[in-house]
Fold these 2 entries.
Entry 1:
Amino acid sequence: MANKFWISRGVKLIENIKYFWIALLLLIVSSAITVQFPHAVPFGETIMTALHFPPQPMNGLQYVGITSLILFIVSLFFLTRSLERYHKRAVFLWILVTIYVPALVVNSYQETFATGIYAVSYDRDSSICEFEMIGESNMDGECELVFENKSEEDVQFTVTFYDKHQYDDELLVLSLMNDKTPFVMSLQGKETKTVKLRKKIDVSDRENHVDWASTSSVHIIMKSDEKLRKL
């Protein structure tokens, strides 16, 4: 009976334990490559970039997302083949694990083991930047960024901005905040903080620029010593 798992009162739950472990391994890999940590892109894209392999080719396909979906479907196949009963319940549980567990794992890691900027959570969706021309050659840029330090230690880091899509026909907005020097920030242990940043930007040497803009999806780069996170 080494290949079977029994629960109380002799009810057999897992028919093939080998298939179950294969399903679990595939589920873990499928979820791990989609985790958006330490950067804002899935972990699988970080690995592919490090290997100099484009995660998103010119045809628009996302290799990480497709790979994750295939692994998940195959894991469901092995899961259903491994069980004696409760197939629908197991599939439903499998889906819930895929949706919620990766975020819980990242949050737990930041609260327990992470140090420095890796323990800092950045709420991009709640952050905002606004730009407005003041005069003919100057622009006023103002941002509100939301951070949470989930560790007990104080953290200090610099912040710069970047535009996610830099096409030739698209005017840069967020990167205008990088004029001259980066912003220096500090968070105390377990502190949640909304940081307000303001900068007067000289646009006299730019041929094209926006006159007014507002964005609620603010992309930043956090840096501390040699550590860097692109969020």
Entry 2:
Amino acid sequence: MGEAMRTIGLLGGMSWESSALYYQVVNEAVRERLGGYHSAKVLMSSVDFAEVEAMQATGDWDAAGELLAAEARALEAAGADCLVLCTNTMHKVAGAIEAAASIPLLHIVDVTAAAIHDAGLSRVALLGTRFTMEQPFVRERLEAQGIEVLVPTGDDLELVHRVIYDELVHGVVRDGSRSAYVDVVARLATAGAEGVILGCTEIELLIGADDVEVPVFATTRLHALAAVDFALG
């Protein structure tokens, strides 16, 4: 079985905190499914998040797309059989990555949408960076698959974004921020959300299914497990 395993190409570093979680989940899942001494066949390209964050801040998405496209080509040349972009926000430039490589990009939104459909839900909240919550690249892809999306507004939106960039990407996990996120989810549930997408890969470091009253769709874990499905399929 190990000889037939395909190689997962992880495009990470945005931030490395969540990329480490990807690596952990894919290896744990392969060990669970195959047993024995098995682990995942993985190649990882880990970029300097400071460069990407600067491009995000200035809105230079074309440059970010070029950077990640080059990393994707390198992973393919090294022998990766698929690409897993270990960040929600940078799926804004997924098209540039797909155009640069001939191996499939496992899109995080499609994986999440499938899980939402499997749960029988059609109206969910979306937490993430300001870019993910305000810009249409995630919301419209979900809506195209029949899923209505609610996002925080005002102070709630600012809080969700700030905690990600000021705390989580630096590995800082605070109880007060967890409580604040739980309150944001509760308000979105009151507004009609049937579940919540943890639409930034770092959010899973802060809250999980045990913290809120609605079903949680943890994009990092869902994405990593989809990569294992591909590798072992």
